[in-house]
Amino acid sequence: MNRPGLYVHVPFCRTKCPYCDFYSVTSLSLVPAWLDALQREVLIYRDRFGSFDSLYLGGGTPTILGSRELTRLMEVLFQDLSFSRDPEITIEANPDDITKEKTALLRDLGFNRISLGVQSLNEKELQFLQRRHSAKQAEEAIEIIQASGYTNLGIDLMYGLPGQDESVWMATLRRILVYNPAHISCYQMTISKGTPFYRMLKQGRIQATGEERERAFFLLTSAYLEENGYVHYEISNFAREEKTMSRHNIKYWRHVPYLGLGPSAHSFLKGLRWWNLRSVDGYCQALDCGRRPVEDRERLTEEQVWLESLFLGFRTREGVKRKLIEGSPNSGSTLREIRSAGLVTLHGDRIIPTREGFILADSLPLLFSH
Ligand code: SF4
């Protein structure tokens, strides 16, 4: 689990969803140039990270790539980077790309985990989100993936949509549980600056959900999935069992080194964080000219690493080690207060956030900062 993870950003989508803040473009004409550039970027990092035990193909929409492109991509990665014997290999998939042939190809290429972007099983919500798939297509995609023998299937859902009714959200969750997926991610909708939804919000055409309702959705979701046997192991993530938790994402939360390849991808190694240009053109041009496609970097101070460890720890069921807060002023009394408020519990040498504590995960670390 402490080996480095590899992330590859596939910056292409068929259309842009109006709430999405991830970097992607809708023209596929740059795919060949992006693959050439990626091959160059791989060579830069060939010996710098050691062997990876997770690979995560995210985006964008990685399943938009055809079989030749996906095959070449995997060859590029496995030819020059080193991997442990049994890496977790995940691909983010859109339901409208899933066919029997595609799933068979993914298996042949070594993908052992699929993260399927379903978002909702309500037709009206899917139309509002401008997703390309219907609820029926999403369910068919789940069935195809499961019939092809994939046991490690993750379903991504979104709640807290403007005007969403709790009963509609619960109907989606109930329906998803029929398929008993190994992993469920439930992301609260955030409306980010620069997105079409943000403009609609400013024009008063949609309403933000509001803190109280967001809180209610969160508590309902957590309670329902835990009652149904899922472990709520990170604010937005639920696993059927320990072995189906996302090995790759856990690395981000534990400050384990990771390498991000592709436009806009972030990397972290020995206290240094850097991120790539948020432009396919800029990324390709930099690598064509023999330059690293890095937009910027920051060296974290010891204090920043410490504070981040608290922020990341309080977002997970692993919590934070007690000794991390011992040097802070009033740590004993603060800990007593948040314990008696039901925000954390103590397990051995760790402070573990409760469900209520998860809601305040972003403010808990500040109580201990110097
Ligand atoms: S398909 Fe995914 S990455 Fe692409 S625009 Fe929609 S939400 Fe964003």
Provide a descriptive summary of the structure in words.
This protein is of the alpha/beta class. The protein folds into two domains: 5-253, Alpha-Beta Barrel (TIM Barrel), CATH 3.20.20.70; 302-368, Arc Repressor Mutant, subunit A, CATH 1.10.10. Helix content is 38%, strand content 22%. Helix 1 packs parallel to helix 2 and helix 1 crosses helix 10 (280-288). 39% of the residues are buried. Residues 13, 16-17, 20, 22, 24, 59-61, 94, 117 line the site of iron/sulfur cluster.
What can be said about this structure in brief?
With 370 residues, the chain is α/β, with parallel strands linked by helices. 38% of the residues lie in helices and 22% in strands. The protein has 14 helices and 15 strands.
Rg computed from alpha carbons, rounded to a whole number of angstroms: 21 Å
Strand segment tally = 15
| CATH superfamily caption of the largest domain | Aldolase class I
User: Low-confidence parts lasting 5 or more residues at pLDDT below 50?
Assistant: none
Relative strand content = 15-25%
Q: What is the first-to-last residue Cα distance?
A: 31 Å
Molecules bound to protein: iron/sulfur cluster
CATH architecture heading of the largest domain: Alpha-Beta Barrel
Shape: globular
Number of domains: 2
Topology:
Blueprint: E1 5-10, H1 31-44, E2 51-59, H2 67-80, E3 82-93, H3 100-108, E4 113-119, H4 123-128, H5 135-147, E5 153-159, H6 166-177, E6 183-188, H7 196-202, H8 211-227, E7 231-234, E8 237-239, H9 247-253, E9 258-261, E10 266-269, E11 272-276, H10 280-288, E12 294-299, H11 302-313, E13 320-321, H12 331-340, E14 344-347, E15 350-353, H13 355-359, H14 364-368
Parallel strand pairs: 1-2, 1-9, 2-3, 3-4, 4-5, 5-6
Antiparallel strand pairs: 6-8, 7-8, 10-11, 11-12, 13-15, 14-15
Helix pairs in contact: 1-2, 1-10
The structure holds iron/sulfur cluster (SF4).
